[in-house]
Amino acid sequence: MTWEGWLAIVAAVLSVVALGAVLAVGRAVGRAQHAVGGTSSPAGAGAEHVEPHRPLVAFVANPSKPGVPELRPAVRRACAEQYLPEPLWLETTPEDPGIGQTKDALGRGADLVVALGGDGTVRAVAEALVGTGVPMGLIPVGTGNLLARNLDIPLGDPVSALQVALEGTDRTIDVGWLRVLKFESDVDDDVAEASDDLPADTDVPRDHIFLVIAGVGFDAAMVADADDQLKAKVGWIAYFVAGIKHLHGRRLRTVVRLDDKAAEPARVRSLLIGNCGRLPGGITLLPDAELDDGWLDIAAIDTRGGVAGWAQLFGEVVLQGAGVRTQLPNKIGRIDHARAREVHLQIAGGEWVQVDGDVLGQVTELSARVDPGALKVRVPAS
Predict the structure, then answer these.
(1) Tens of pLDDT along 207-232?
(2) CA 321, CA 316: separation in Å to the nearest integer?
(3) What kind of fold does domain 57-167 have according to CATH?
(4) Which label site among 65, 106, 294, 309 has the fewest CB atoms less than 10 Å from its CB?
(5) What CA–CA distance (Å, rounded) separates 115 from 119?
């Protein structure tokens, strides 16, 4: 036999041996997959495929705000572009401004709840999300848009705000709670017991959430008197128009207690209790306030001397917003700052109180406290 013949025989034997090795390996792989409950996969497919979690987004929308119903197609399109499930669209009602809708969304497994409306909608959604760990997104379409301003959420551009809600990062912030202990109009116990028309929980205090600023006095009266039609036309400027009527209002007689310190009397035009301090018009009333520092910032605002006092006060606000604070004695318009985790306030004769622009009524006694790190919010990616 020639050497070419021997070479052909060797090649054939090697081919048979290689084929046998391949078949043996295949059988071993099959047995191993069967042992872990799997099935054979194409080369490179790896272990059993696990479908990645796709977050469910819920939108709690206030349909009374201009343009909100028309945003629904854009919301669905934006979620589809990111391969997210069909979003939940839950509309608020006059009877339920968003708390019930948010709880419904959580019950249906929402991973993100977006407040689509004004400050009232944001407060309601936040109240239901506190302590859950589920983040809140914001698409601001209201008059003040207070929290959105302090989080640098785009204003006047719902589509950009939507992108922040879907693609931003999560930030943990504090929230404030205000409890009205006594309304000016509270009836005495004898009248309450004699009336069958009063709700059973009339005398039960309730906590009201605020994310930016709660206030008693001039600021709350200004909010209470703001004309809704004017707000729809000119936005936050309507509040300043309403404020003109209260420039010559009375100074409040109050007794203030901060944390466990002794209570002190104070004469003020407004007492502000803030979680953060940026307001419309570029105004910063509480320059030291931080959303995540675990403190409430308090500002006692007072003026005397009529318009001159208000003019000096406005100058104080502008300067402190620029980082400059004056310490001149005997000022007729001034802001005094303090910090606390709990505040107790008594007001002689009663006065209006507001939380993030929502008026609660006229009160004679209230308390406020901070709830550190209680809420997650979606903010622009840094």
Answers:
(1) 999 999 999 998 888 888 777 777 67
(2) 8
(3) Rossmann fold (3.40.50)
(4) 294
(5) 9
